[in-house]
Design a protein that fits this description.
5-stranded mixed sheet; globular; disordered N terminus; 5 strands; 2 domains; 508 residues; mainly alpha; 26 helices; single chain
Length: 508
């Protein structure tokens, strides 16, 4: 039996590019096979709708505009390959695969070995939240790919001291800002690093100016929106608040209060992403971080990002806060790979250690198969929330893959085709973009009027307490859910509801 270290050296003597492409292809195949075939619910439908309408800014505030992602989506829209919504889902799959490959490359360049980087890459690839976001139209995998790209060029700068890598760092972080304000954490860490380098005369002002210029170029889509809004409104303060928090989420972003329920759910979220004994490698990697890092500054950046992303997500109070742990999971996977390297070096003569650890990497897959069944018995609140037709909340939420799922499109088709001519459908914010897209792009029911709190179809009337009597006298009115929070209070107080297919008809 040969030593594991000798095996490792033999394998990693191959081309770094070749192994990067192998990891990229395998991750891409996983996400492509499990990618949603079409429209989904909530934010995914929101992005599809915005891209369909070339809406780079949106109406939810600049922090939720994500212009880089929308611009990429608009470019993808013109590629004649498959159904439009699938194309955008597939785009997330591509960015997800790039993220996994970038994580592998980061650890490969850092450690000079193969097995530990593979452990880290596979751990991230099959983690619940990351896998889920890699198979639907969402902005998060693009951010993760850019964040790991930042760490790769930072690693290379520390190893080579070549300023060109810092130029790339500025450009990548600027692009990340143009995609999601999550990148502000990286911006803060890199700014501190650059200031330290300047003070210690390890970086000249010329190089610093080029880094700033590259950042400005990368962030141009977001800068354009900010400058445009300042010029149109004349209100610098309001525009900057919108750029940092969006229209409605400043209190959530700045929240410092916690509850036992939030704490317990956050712990469940983390464990669900790493339901494997390999999770303990995170703490091994954390312990070994400073020792194995190519420089103290690199270790400090990794640790700072880990803490900042975890703290931000942990006390965030939006409904889908579980997604906001995703950058933390990427950094945790790096540390798990680092911890695996510590173990492999200590037990270099034991091949069974490698086999067991690789098996543990894939353990989340069978666990996700049974998680919905377990959750139905142990966590009833998930099933007691508002139910959507053709969507089992446990399966849809707890299993990351979306292979063959067409429940959202089936609901939309039945909703649009099951109402009378010139009917009005009131839709909450989680479903409105799904119906709008299906109505405009894939349905002939242009007579149906879609109304909601934010977005409406072009022929929609004013839908208020003052107009409802007149509207009901001339058109049938439907809602998706006759529940508080999903239906206007004036309807709940004054009218009754009768189920009609997947909708509820408003009656006197």
């Amino acid at each position: 039996m040969r030593e594991i270290s000798k095996q490792d050296e033999a394998v990693t003597s191959g081309s770094v590019v070749l192994w990067y492409l192998i990891v990229l292809a395998v991750a891409g195949l996983l996400y492509t096979l499990t990618c949603a075939p079409g429209m989904l619910w909530q934010d995914s439908a929101f992005y599809v709708w915005r891209i369909w309408n070339n809406d780079i800014e949106g109406i939810m505030g600049l922090a939720l505009s994500h212009p880089l992602y929308i611009m990429i989506g608009i470019a993808v829209k013109h590629i004649p390959l498959g159904e439009f919504a699938w194309r955008l889902n597939f785009t997330s799959a591509v960015f997800g695969a790039v993220t996994v490959a970038n994580l592998f490359l980061l650890l490969r360049l850092w450690l000079g070995r193969l097995l530990a980087p593979l452990i880290g890459a596979v751990t991230l690839a099959v983690s619940w939240t990351f896998w889920q976001q890699s198979v639907m139209a969402e902005v998060y995998t693009l951010h993760a790919a850019l964040m790991l790209g930042e760490l790769i060029v930072l690693l290379q700068y520390i190893r080579t001291n070549r300023p060109a890598y810092l130029y790339l760092l500025g450009f990548f972080n600027g692009m990340a800002i143009a995609n999601h304000m999550w990148a502000a954490f990286g911006f803060a860490c890199y700014t501190v690093l650059l200031v330290v380098l300047l003070v210690r005369s390890r970086l000249g002002l010329k190089h610093f100016a080029i880094i700033v210029l590259m950042w400005v170029i990368g962030a141009l889509p977001y800068e354009y929106l900010v400058i445009k809004n300042i010029m149109l409104s004349g209100d610098i303060h309001a525009t900057l608040v919108s750029a940092m928090f969006g229209r409605l989420w400043q209190a959530n972003v700045l929240n410092v209060s916690m509850s036992v329920k939030i704490v317990l759910e956050n712990i469940i979220f983390v464990l669900l992403n790493f339901p494997t004994p390999n999770f303990v490698l995170l703490f091994v990697g954390l312990w070994a971080l400073r020792q194995k890092a190519p420089g103290r500054s690199f270790a400090n950046v990794i640790l700072a990002l880990l803490v900042l992303y975890f703290a931000f997500a942990f006390r965030y109070t939006v409904v889908d806060r579980y997604v906001f742990f995703l950058p933390f999971y990427c950094l945790a996977a790096i540390l798990i790979g680092l911890g695996a390297d510590v173990v492999f070096r200590r037990y270099s003569h034991k091949e069974e250690v490698v086999l067991v650890m690789l098996a543990f990497c894939l353990l989340p897959i069978p666990i996700y198969l049974v998680t919905p069944t377990v959750a139905r018995k142990m966590y009833k609140p998930l099933g007691q929330r508002r139910q959507r037709p053709y969507r089992d909340e446990y399966d849809y939420f707890l299993q990351p893959w979306k292979t063959g799922y067409k429940g959202a499109e089936k609901f939309a088709n039945e909703a649009l085709n099951g109402v009378e001519e010139n009917a009005i459908i009131y839709v909450d914010s989680t479903i409105v973009h799904l119906l709008l897209y299906m109505r405009e792009a894939k349905s002939e029911r242009k007579d149906v009027k879609i109304v909601s709190e934010y977005y409406m179809s072009e022929n929609a009337p004013a839908f208020t307490e003052d107009t409802i009597e007149r509207l009901m006298a001339s058109s049938p009115v439907y809602v998706v859910s006759p529940l508080s929070g999903y239906c206007p209070s004036f309807l709940l107080q004054r009218y009754k509801f009768e189920q009609a297919g997947v909708l509820w008809k408003v009656i006197d």
